[in-house]
Every structure is written in structure tokens, then in C-alpha cells.
């Protein structure tokens, strides 16, 4: 048994851990990063980045399709194995460069499964690690489906690595992953169904924008099945039969469970200290510290912050380093979190929803509409679009923006800056944006 001591040990090597480790090392600490899987974490290896390779392909196909008969004659087709090769080329080497990058930076990378024993002690395989502070950055995993035949369903990891594209795919869950992958699969030629348990999918986004996305989703050939909870999956001939609570069933070649992600709390299984958790993760104060165990901090998807986004994970990693080095002084502020679903077109939001602004009793006006008659939509054959901007009366500040259109994931960042910096309609209009661009269309959304 080997005993190693550090100032701080971080469990997990994902994006939140990266920023925490770098910050602590720069502050002079002896830091270790432990991971049981390939180094690099979800975003780089199994999430945001590889996904965008598939999305980029789908966007190219859709762009040509939307202009079919309007100056484009031969629609391109996805070569799925070649697309996978391109994505895998990007992934190759990330785990080793992540591991070696830590070492070169003077941070100790350790491979193995970590188990918390008490507030300062961890077991990693045959080693005991002792540290003044422990940061739990263990991320999240696909939620287990509690239905017959659950093991027949794949996860987002399965979809990202499919060697060939199944002709028929069903996604369980009406969230980010189902919608993004459904659009990818449909553009690549699959027959796609999304099975969702309630009437409204993507519940954190503006309902009108989501309704417009459902029109775009239907136009892309995707079937959306609302108010259907998956109850069983069984083998049927060469395929799978997915049945729902209404008794309806669908035969497909592949089922992907995208019904949400659960925090990875297995790290606490042997802990003598009762670290407080909720179904959303480890309970933390605004400094990302366990309220009952001050030597323990949690960041990223495993922390109960209400978000499972890479940007929130990164920010938490940076702040936790400051809080450990200098005493709790940097709270996690989540007032301006821009978020996008990479469907075709993108769905994006930042700031307050209409409902939230009403609940806060704010005096505001709403600018909303479609861009489909604007040149920026017409020149790309964009048939489905929606925007909604909330502007405070009196101050003329932007309170929230909700976009469903081409490049929405980029344009939402302009609104994020406006909200963060409390810019007014006048401030935004005083900028001479590059024109004609999707960014410059912002002027027409706030007028
Ligand atoms: C398909 C998909 C697409 C996504 N797309 C986006 C996007 O476009 N934009 C966005 O903002 N977010 C996106 N996300 C979310 C984003 O990936 C996560 O919010 C982010 O990666 C969380 O980072 P993390 O540092 O908390 O954990 P992770 O990156 O998940 O890292 C946790 C690490 O901890 C390790 N670990 C767990 N338990 C132990 C243990 N006991 N001992 C040792 N190691 C352990 C794991 O092996 C893992 O490597 C996506 C997620 C998925 C699944
Ligand atoms: N673009 C991005 O930023 C991005 C992309 C992918 C994932 N993510 C992150 O990862 C998280 C997990 O993604 P996700 O899509 O798995 O979860 P999600 O929470 O976005 O959506 C899951 C949906 O599945 C529904 N559901 C649950 N059980 C069901 C059942 N048995 N039958 C039918 N429907 C069911 C839920 O009501 C929910 O709406 C997201 O919340 C997000 O934070 C972000």
C-alpha cells in the first residue's frame, strides 16, 4: 500500500477538472488528477466536440437540401464511415496528450477508480491519497432506464461510435441529446422517431421556439411522439420493438436512451462522511463547497448547480481553484448562461424566459416573430425560424433572448454579452455590425 500526499486531489479529468488543476498548480499547489477512464472527460471524448463533427456534416447536407431546386441540383449524401473516420482522427491522441499535459505542467495524473474514504482520504486502487482538499469532478452518465429490455438500448456513446448508420432509430427522451442526434441521423438518411414522455420537449427553452423547432423536425422527416413513456424493448426479427405506456410500438434497428444524465456519485460509496447529495448531484454552496464538509468541493456535472453544461463546468473549475487558494471569495454566478441545441436550425436561449420575467414582476416588452421573409433566411431556404427578445421598459435593457434559426448558437452569444454587460437597445444599435450577417439581423429583432 502506497501513501501519497497532495495539497489537492481532483477526481475526474474532464473539462471542469482541467481548469481546477491548472489554477491550483499555477497557485503553487501540489495537485493530483485521478481518472478511471481515458483522460479528457465527456466533452472532449464523448460529448460536445465529437458531436459537432457529426452536426457539421448534417448541416452541410441540410444546407444543400434547403436550396435544392433553388440553384443546387445534386444533393450530397453522408458517407457515415468516412465521417466517423474524420471524427476519430480528431479524437486520436486526446487521452495521451491530456495525461501527458498534466505531467508536463507539474500536476500528477493517476489512472484508477477513486473512492472517498473520509474528508481528506481517497483510495485509488492500491494507493491511499491524502489531501487538504478534495475536488469531486466525476461528471454524469446516461440515466438508467428502468424498463424491460433496457440493456438493448444504447446511449449517446453508442450513437457517437456507430460504425454504420442504422436505417431506423428511436430516441427515448425529448432533450438535447435526442434532438441533436435525431437531426444528425435524419440528414444522414435514417428514419428517426423521438419518444418523449410529456407533451412538451426541451422544457428549458421558449415554448414558441420549441413549437417552431418541431415543425422543422417534422419537415426533416423525424417523427416526434409526445406523451409516450417507453415501457419495454424486445428483440423482434432483426430489429427491436420499442413499446410505450399507451400500448403503441415501433420497430427499429437501434434504440438510444437519451432520457437524461445522472451525477456519478459512486465515488462516495465508501465514504464515512455523509456528504450531502440530491438527485441532481453533490449539494454545494455558491463557492462549490460541501456545506457540511469544508475540505470537499464539487464541480461540473456532479455538482448540484442546475446545469450540465461544459461552460458551467469550466467556470466552476476556475472558481474552485481561487476558492481553495485564497479562501471562498469567488461565487458561481449563473445569471447569464447561454445554451444551444445543435439542431437544424439551432435552438438557443440566454437570460430570462417570458415566464421568469413575469414571475419576477418585471415591466418588459416582447419583440418576436419569424425571419423567414428576411433575405438572410430566404437566401438559404430557411422555412422555419423564430425569435423572441425581452426588453425591459424604461431601462431598455435586454432581459432575455430566444432564437430558433440558422446560426442561432453563434448569435445568442451577442445577446449574452448584452445581458451580462447590461447593454441597452441603444447600445446595441450604436454598433456597426459587419453586414449582411446573422449578427447584424439582431438590429431587426430589437427594433
Ligand atoms: C452527447 C453529449 C453532448 C454534449 N454537448 C454539449 C454541448 O454541445 N455544449 C455543452 O456545453 N455541453 C455539452 N454536453 C455536456 C458536457 O459534456 C458536460 O457538461 C461536461 O463534459 C461535464 O464535465 P465534467 O468535468 O463535469 O465531467 P466529465 O467530463 O464527465 O468528467 C468526469 C470524469 O470523471 C471520471 N470518474 C467518474 N467517477 C470516477 C471515480 N470514482 N474515480 C475516478 N474517475 C472517475 C470519469 O471517468 C470522467 O472521465 C454534452 C454531453 C453529452 C453527453
Ligand atoms: N448542446 C448542449 O449544450 C448539450 C447537448 C447534449 C447534452 N447536453 C447536456 O446533457 C444533459 C443530458 O442530455 P439528455 O438529452 O440526456 O437529457 P435532458 O435532460 O436534456 O432530456 C431528457 C428528456 O427525457 C425525458 N424522459 C425521461 N425519461 C423518459 C422516458 N422513460 N420516456 C420518454 N422520455 C423520457 C425527460 O422528460 C427529458 O425531457 C442535458 O440536460 C444537457 O445539460 C448539452
UniProtKB/TrEMBL annotation:
Residues 337-443 form the Pyridine nucleotide-disulphide oxidoreductase dimerisation domain. Residues 6-317 form the FAD/NAD(P)-binding domain. The keyword Transcription regulation does not apply. Disulfide bonds join 43-48. FAD binds at residues 52, 138-140, 301. NAD(+) binds at residues 173-180, 260. InterPro entries: FAD/NAD-bd_sf (IPR036188), FAD/NAD-binding_dom (IPR023753), FAD/NAD-linked_Rdtase_dimer_sf (IPR016156), Pyr_nuc-diS_OxRdtase (IPR001100), Pyr_nucl-diS_OxRdtase_dimer (IPR004099). It comes from the Bacteria. It holds the Pfam family Pyr_redox_dim. GO terms for molecular function: nucleotide binding; oxidoreductase activity. Belongs to the class-I pyridine nucleotide-disulfide oxidoreductase family. PANTHER family: GLUTATHIONE REDUCTASE (NADPH) (PTHR43014:SF5), MERCURIC REDUCTASE (PTHR43014). This is NAD(P)/FAD-dependent oxidoreductase.
Amino acid at each position: 500500500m502506497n501513501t501519497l500526499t497532495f495539497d489537492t486531489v481532483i477526481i475526474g479529468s474532464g473539462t471542469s477538472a482541467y481548469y481546477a488543476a491548472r489554477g491550483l498548480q499555477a497557485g503553487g499547489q501540489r495537485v493530483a488528477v485521478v481518472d478511471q477512464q481515458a483522460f479528457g472527460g465527456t466533452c472532449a471524448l464523448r460529448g460536445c466536440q465529437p458531436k459537432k463533427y457529426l452536426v457539421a456534416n448534417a448541416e452541410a447536407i441540410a444546407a444543400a437540401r434547403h436550396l435544392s431546386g433553388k440553384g443546387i441540383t445534386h444533393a450530397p449524401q453522408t458517407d457515415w464511415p468516412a465521417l466517423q473516420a474524420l471524427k476519430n482522427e480528431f479524437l486520436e491522441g486526446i487521452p495521451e496528450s491530456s495525461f501527458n499535459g498534466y505531467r508536463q505542467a507539474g500536476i500528477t495524473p493517476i489512472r484508477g477508480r477513486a473512492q472517498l474514504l473520509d474528508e481528506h482520504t481517497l483510495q485509488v486502487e492500491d494507493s491511499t491519497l491524502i489531501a487538504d482538499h478534495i475536488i469531486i469532478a466525476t461528471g454524469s452518465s446516461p440515466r438508467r432506464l428502468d424498463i424491460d429490455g433496457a440493456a438493448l438500448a444504447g446511449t449517446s456513446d453508442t450513437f457517437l461510435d456507430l460504425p454504420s448508420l442504422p436505417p431506423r432509430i428511436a430516441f427515448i427522451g425529448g432533450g438535447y441529446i435526442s434532438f441533436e442526434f435525431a437531426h444528425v441521423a435524419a440528414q444522414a438518411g435514417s428514419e428517426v422517431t423521438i419518444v418523449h414522455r410529456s407533451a412538451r420537449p426541451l422544457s428549458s427553452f421558449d415554448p414558441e421556439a420549441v413549437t417552431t423547432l418541431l415543425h422543422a423536425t417534422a419537415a426533416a422527416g423525424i417523427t416526434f411522439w409526445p406523451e409516450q413513456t417507453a415501457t419495454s424493448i424486445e428483440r423482434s426479427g432483426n430489429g427491436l420493438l420499442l413499446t410505450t405506456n399507451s400500448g403503441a410500438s415501433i420497430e427499429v434497428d437501434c434504440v438510444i436512451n437519451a432520457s437524461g444524465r445522472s451525477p456519478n456519485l459512486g465515488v462516495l460509496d465508501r465514504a464515512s462522511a455523509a456528504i450531502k447529495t440530491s438527485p441532481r448531484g453533490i449539494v454545494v454552496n455558491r463557492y462549490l463547497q460541501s456545506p457540511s464538509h469544508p475540505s470537499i468541493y464539487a464541480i461540473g456535472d456532479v455538482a448540484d448547480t442546475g446545469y450540465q453544461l461544459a461552460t458551467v463546468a469550466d467556470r466552476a473549475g476556475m472558481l474552485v481553484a481561487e476558492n481553495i487558494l485564497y479562501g471562498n471569495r469567488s461565487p458561481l454566478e449563473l445569471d447569464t448562461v447561454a445554451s444551444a441545441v445543435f439542431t437544424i436550425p439551432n435552438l438557443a436561449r440566454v437570460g430570462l424566459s417570458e415566464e421568469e420575467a413575469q414571475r419576477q414582476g418585471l415591466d418588459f416588452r416582447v419583440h418576436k416573430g419569424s425571419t423567414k421573409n428576411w433575405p438572410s433566411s430566404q437566401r438559404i431556404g430557411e422555412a422555419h425560424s423564430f425569435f423572441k427578445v425581452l426588453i425591459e421598459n424604461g431601462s431598455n435593457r435586454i432581459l432575455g433572448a430566444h432564437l430558433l434559426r440558422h446560426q442561432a448558437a453563434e448569435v445568442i452569444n451577442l445577446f449574452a454579452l448584452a445581458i451580462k454587460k447590461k447593454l441597452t437597445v441603444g447600445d446595441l444599435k450604436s454598433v456597426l455590425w459587419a453586414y449582411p450577417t446573422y449578427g447584424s439581423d439582431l438590429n431587426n429583432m430589437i427594433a
